[in-house]
Design brief:
The complex is a heterodimer of chains A (265) and B (309). With 265 residues, chain A is α+β, with helices and mostly antiparallel strands. Chain A has 8 helices and 11 strands. In chain B, helix 1 crosses helix 5. Classes of the chains: A alpha+beta (265), B mainly alpha (309).
């Protein structure tokens, strides 16, 4: 049934931290690995070793360059993009067959590969490019939120998370119930100002993005207030050590000490 | 948007077929039984033939054509499903109308009501086709007030030119047919021109900044795409090949429509010119439909380097 179910109390989704994502593609590859044999299997590739390899991936990691006003250098933001499991997904309501549906119990948006006719209209209706058509399989593929992991009792409890979340080496991906204000993911969103993509379109995405923190690097960071020398015995010891180490006998280390610069200000 | 040939063929062929069918229904409503069985059968055969070819071709682009019947189930929410249902239902009054209008079944009192129902259902079907596109918020050029009227008027105009053309072959050509076709072609020309003005002026509300949410930091540009060759999203939604020729092709559509108009005027002197008019109008509809897809920009392109959508 492609009419939407009444809004569920449980809203499972991802929170993606754009501050800590390093763009390593581990989430994308582990997604492909798990889902090539899971619910969405197969996830076909065509010409994988040729000059123009293409294939179905449910998670894509973009890189954006953001130019801040008054900054000489722009910053790079790694930006994972996958299905946001919208509360009001147009990809579901446009489906003519009922293959595309939103689960009433937890809000996950899925495609039934047995009834999908491969008309592609859902991919036209999605503003986020979350759906990719599998040419060889003739049906639409999308993120399942690893529905075959998160409820899988054959897995250890700590593994019952989406493959992308498990794989992320920097902990930039978080999974949980965004319908529950007391969940870890909801707290994270509240604390860090998590936001929706294209909120003006009105699809109410469940997944949230955490904005990059204000930058702190050599060009822009204000030097943190350093303790001023107070003339104590400790200070005098460090000044003596600094002089000693700055002497020409330990050339190889001079630059390091200069860079730390802690006591020279 | 990628212009799939099967969808272009479907929407233009079935549009003309439904336009012709609607006009035949009205002819039946107005005049009763057709003047000859052969004329009626040829008209009905061409109308239903175009519709059927169109519907079949629309299933060619499906990944699983054998499951197409499932598309009739979700009419509560999906315009594509509604189109399927309307298309299937229309066959019933259309076939019944063809039988009584041609005189194969002698029931003159049924001609007028069946004609009206057929005409209404034909237009409802074209309306649902237009709504599939007009209801997509993700594609600014389609999510416009004039999208559906253009579908309706182009269907009627091409159908009307076809009717005049067929009538000329059967020596049944009437001045009224030419006048109606000229009026519809003129309406198509004006509406399409207005549609292009509309999409050129429609605000581009969505930006790379709002798509990524990074606008609060600064201006956003694409640094690296996630894959080394084009993926499905780029091929299907990022089609931009035609954009540089759009201006020329738009003029081409208007010229074809204007030539069809002139041919219709000429048909007043020599009725066979209506056949040429029908061919020109159909050619205009095909190019128009191709542009309708090729010019349409999808919001997802914002993630792939488009500045606004």
């Amino acid at each position: 049934m492609t009419s939407l179910p009444p809004p569920s109390a449980k809203k499972l989704g991802l929170v993606i931290d754009l501050d800590t994502c390093v763009g390593c593609q581990a989430c994308a590859t582990s997604c492909k690995e798990w889902n090539a044999q899971g619910y969405s299997a197969p996830l076909n590739d065509s010409n994988p070793y040729g000059s123009e390899p293409t294939g179905v991936w449910l998670n894509r990691i973009h890189g954006f360059e953001v130019k801040e006003e008054g900054q000489a250098h722009s910053r790079i933001v790694n930006f994972p993009r996958s299905c946001l499991h919208c509360e009001e997904p147009a990809c579901v309501t446009v489906c003519p067959t009922g293959a595309s549906y939103k689960r009433a119990e937890d809000g996950i948006v899925l495609v039934n590969p047995e009834t999908c006719i491969g008309c592609k209209l859902c991919s036209w209706a999605c503003p986020y490019g979350a759906r990719e058509y599998d040419q060889s399989d003739g049906v639409m593929k999308k993120c399942t939120l690893c529905v075959d992991r998160i409820y899988n009792e054959n897995l250890d409890v700590e593994d019952r998370q989406p493959a992308c979340v498990k794989a992320c080496p920097t902990g930039a991906r978080h999974f949980g119930d965004l319908g529950d204000a007391s969940s870890n993911v909801s707290k994270l969103v509240a604390e860090r100002g998590g936001y929706d993509l294209l909120p003006e379109m009105g699809y109410k995405p469940v997944n949230k993005y955490l904005p990059p923190r204000p930058r702190r690097d050599a060009h822009t960071a204000k030097a943190e207030a350093l303790p001023k020398p107070d003339g104590s015995a400790f200070d005098r010891l460090f000044v003596w050590a600094d002089k000693l180490l700055s002497s020409k006998r330990v050339v190889g280390r001079v630059s390091d000490i200069d860079n730390s610069g802690k006591l020279e200000g | 948007m990628h212009p799939a040939y099967s969808v272009i063929l479907f929407t233009t062929a079935s549009g003309a077929g439904y336009g012709l069918l609607a006009l035949l229904g009205l002819v039946g409503f107005n005049h009763g039984q057709a003047s000859s069985v052969a004329f009626a059968l040829v008209c009905m055969f061409i109308a239903l033939g175009l519709i059927t070819i169109g519907l079949l071709s629309s299933t060619f682009h499906l990944g699983h054509p054998e499951r197409a019947w499932r598309a009739l189930s979700q009419w509560r929410s999906s315009w594509l499903s509604r189109e399927g249902v309307a298309a299937v239902i229309t066959y019933v009054p259309a076939l019944a109308f063809g039988l009584v209008w041609s005189g194969l079944i002698d029931a003159p009192r049924l001609i007028a009501p069946l004609g009206v129902v057929t005409a209404v259902m034909a237009m409802v079907t074209v309306f649902t086709t237009g709504m599939i596109y007009a209801s997509l918020k993700t594609i600014r050029a389609w999510n416009q007030m004039l999208t559906v009227p253009v579908y309706l008027v182009l269907g009627l105009a091409t159908g009307s030119a076809l009717l005049a053309g067929i009538a000329s072959l059967f020596e049944r050509f009437q001045v009224f047919q030419a006048v109606l076709t000229i009026a519809l072609l003129l309406a198509a020309l004006i509406l399409k021109f207005a549609y292009w003005r509309m999409i050129d002026e429609a605000p581009r509300d969505h930006t790379m900044e709002s798509a990524t949410g990074l606008g609060s930091i600064g201006t956003v540009g694409q640094w690296e795409v996630p894959h080394t060759s084009e993926n499905y999203v780029q091929k299907e939604m990022g089609y931009a090949v035609a954009r540089k020729h759009a201006k020329t092709l738009r003029r081409f559509v208007l010229v074809l429509l204007a030539l069809a108009l002139l041919a219709m005027l000429a048909s007043l002197a020599l009725s066979y010119f209506a056949i040429l008019a029908a061919a020109l109008a159909l050619a205009a509809a095909v190019v128009e439909r191709w542009l309708f897809f090729a010019e349409a920009q999808h919001v997802v392109t914002l993630f792939y380097g488009a500045k606004s959508a």
